């Protein structure tokens, strides 16, 4: 009889191959803080500069210097590994100038092996679109935009405290079309006082705008936000669920594949950077508050950098801004893997679990089969994916994989 030995300690555990490596860069400033947002974003006036909607040039330059130094400090962790994608997220990276982005990307190319076909995405707020600047972003090598539209309805945009209106949203899309053939539109639904028809009107407008990708997020009232403290009247759970169903149907009819909880893409236009997260790939994370996950043959580590821009800059000045670094324990690895992979509509190939975690499938197969029996997952010998029920009750499904 053959016995399967389970690695239970780090000493007999190992990864046979390292996953693909991506690079996330955080830009922590916004013109104004939106009342629903719990991302690490800081209104400009609190960033030590003016409140005229522009980032101070000295601060901008210092931040780019810090990002470059931050990347350099990570290099020993990933020697020789190619970088498959870059995501510039925020905050509002589009507040930075095209010259700064060009300088940053040149510095990245000089320090890591960036694959020639790497997807390079920039998150952009419609309130920051200037035609020349976006031409410059494209010239710098950025080849994908993710535009925070949220809604095309002026009353809703006002209720969300956005700095842009419907016209600015359309202008941003027109400029995006001029310089980019690949862009995502972020929309939110279940907005204050929103009807089903209004939610669908936003989706129809996004489809007509000709984007390659749509992210449709259910507005959540996150702790530590103004909306949490003073909750607006939002649609109840039943209406929000109806909106979700109708949005999915509309996007499917327009040829968008629903490939992740909130993400919809035209054929071959899935967000490669995000797919790497969902397939439990590795990523460096530089900039204020950025997270990283890096695999080694004998461990997988997580890092988080100082969140406050001033702290981050000061720490980088002293030589490094990593606030916490820890190894993901063998007990945490299955949950961490599932937390990402089960967001994908197509789920994952069973052998990916072992490839990414170094653990044998026997660690999770019992829970997978139990979830299959309950109609939350379905699998064959090679592949597992969430059922419609499993996608709807994703948190219940994920709890199964929590460490004891
Ligand atoms: C990190 S934000 C950056 C986008 C960019 N700063 C902007 O807002 O134009 C990415 C997206 O997350 C979504 N988002 C932010 N807060 C949310 C919330 N409380 N509920 C649902 N979606 C949210 C929004 O659609 C937003 O565009
Ligand atoms: S612009 Fe984007 S990142 Fe900034 S506060 Fe608003 S939602 Fe958050």
Automatic annotation (TrEMBL):
<keyword id="KW-0408">Iron</keyword>
<dbReference type="Pfam" id="PF04055">
    <property type="entry name" value="Radical_SAM"/>
</dbReference>
<keyword id="KW-0963">Cytoplasm</keyword>
<dbReference type="InterPro" id="IPR007197">
    <property type="entry name" value="rSAM"/>
</dbReference>
<keyword id="KW-0349">Heme</keyword>
<keyword id="KW-0949">S-adenosyl-L-methionine</keyword>
<keyword id="KW-0143">Chaperone</keyword>
<keyword id="KW-0411">Iron-sulfur</keyword>
<dbReference type="InterPro" id="IPR004559">
    <property type="entry name" value="HemW-like"/>
</dbReference>
<dbReference type="InterPro" id="IPR006638">
    <property type="entry name" value="Elp3/MiaA/NifB-like_rSAM"/>
</dbReference>
<dbReference type="InterPro" id="IPR010723">
    <property type="entry name" value="HemN_C"/>
</dbReference>
<dbReference type="InterPro" id="IPR034505">
    <property type="entry name" value="Coproporphyrinogen-III_oxidase"/>
</dbReference>
<comment type="function">
    <text>Probably acts as a heme chaperone, transferring heme to an unknown acceptor. Binds one molecule of heme per monomer, possibly covalently. Binds 1 [4Fe-4S] cluster. The cluster is coordinated with 3 cysteines and an exchangeable S-adenosyl-L-methionine.</text>
</comment>
<comment type="similarity">
    <text>Belongs to the anaerobic coproporphyrinogen-III oxidase family. HemW subfamily.</text>
</comment>
<dbReference type="Pfam" id="PF06969">
    <property type="entry name" value="HemN_C"/>
</dbReference>
<feature type="domain" description="Radical SAM core">
    <location>
        <begin position="15"/>
        <end position="257"/>
    </location>
</feature>
<dbReference type="InterPro" id="IPR058240">
    <property type="entry name" value="rSAM_sf"/>
</dbReference>
<keyword id="KW-0004">4Fe-4S</keyword>
<protein>
    <recommendedName>
        <fullName>Heme chaperone HemW</fullName>
    </recommendedName>
</protein>
<keyword id="KW-0479">Metal-binding</keyword>
């Amino acid at each position: 009889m053959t016995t399967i030995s389970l690695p239970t300690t780090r000493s007999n555990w190992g990864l046979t191959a390292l996953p693909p490596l991506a690079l996330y860069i955080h830009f922590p400033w916004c013109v104004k803080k939106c009342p629903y947002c719990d991302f690490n974003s800081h209104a400009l006036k609190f960033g030590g500069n003016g409140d005229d909607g522009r980032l101070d040039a000295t601060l901008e330059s210092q931040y780019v210097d810090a990002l470059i130094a931050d990347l350099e400090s990570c290099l020993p962790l990933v020697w020789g590994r190619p970088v498959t994608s870059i995501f510039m997220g925020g905050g509002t990276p589009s507040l930075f100038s095209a010259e700064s982005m060009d300088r940053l990307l040149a510095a990245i190319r000089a320090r890591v092996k960036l694959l020639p076909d790497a997807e390079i995405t920039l998150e952009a707020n419609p309130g920051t679109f200037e035609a020349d600047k976006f031409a410059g972003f494209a010239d710098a090598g950025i080849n994908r935009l993710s535009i925070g539209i949220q809604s095309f309805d002026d009353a809703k945009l006002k209720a969300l405290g956005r700095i842009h209106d419907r016209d600015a949203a359309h202008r941003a899309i027109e400029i995006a079309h001029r310089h980019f053939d690949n862009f995502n539109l972020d929309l939110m639904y279940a907005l204050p006082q929103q009807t089903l028809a209004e939610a669908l009107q936003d989706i129809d407008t996004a489809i007509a705008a000709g984007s390659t990708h749509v992210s449709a997020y259910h507005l959540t009232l996150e702790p530590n936000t103004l909306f949490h403290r003073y909750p607006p009247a939002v649609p109840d759970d039943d209406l929000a669920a109806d909106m979700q169903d109708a949005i999915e149907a509309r996007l499917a009819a327009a040829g968008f594949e629903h490939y992740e909880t909130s993400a919809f893409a035209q054929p071959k236009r899935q967000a490669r950077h995000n797919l790497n997260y969902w397939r439990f790939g590795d990523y460096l994370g530089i900039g204020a508050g950025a997270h990283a996950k890096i695999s080694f043959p004998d461990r997988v580590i997580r890092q988080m950098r100082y969140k406050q821009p001033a702290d981050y800059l000061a720490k980088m000045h002293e030589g490094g801004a990593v606030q916490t670094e820890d190894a993901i324990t063998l007990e945490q690895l299955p949950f961490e893997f599932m937390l990402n992979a089960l967001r994908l509509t197509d789920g994952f190939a069973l052998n990916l679990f072992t490839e990414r975690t170094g653990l044998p499938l026997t660690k999770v197969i019992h829970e997978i089969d139990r979830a299959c029996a309950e109609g939350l997952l379905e699998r064959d010998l090679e592949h597992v994916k969430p059922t419609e029920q499993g996608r709807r009750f994703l948190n219940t499904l994920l709890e199964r994989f929590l460490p004891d």
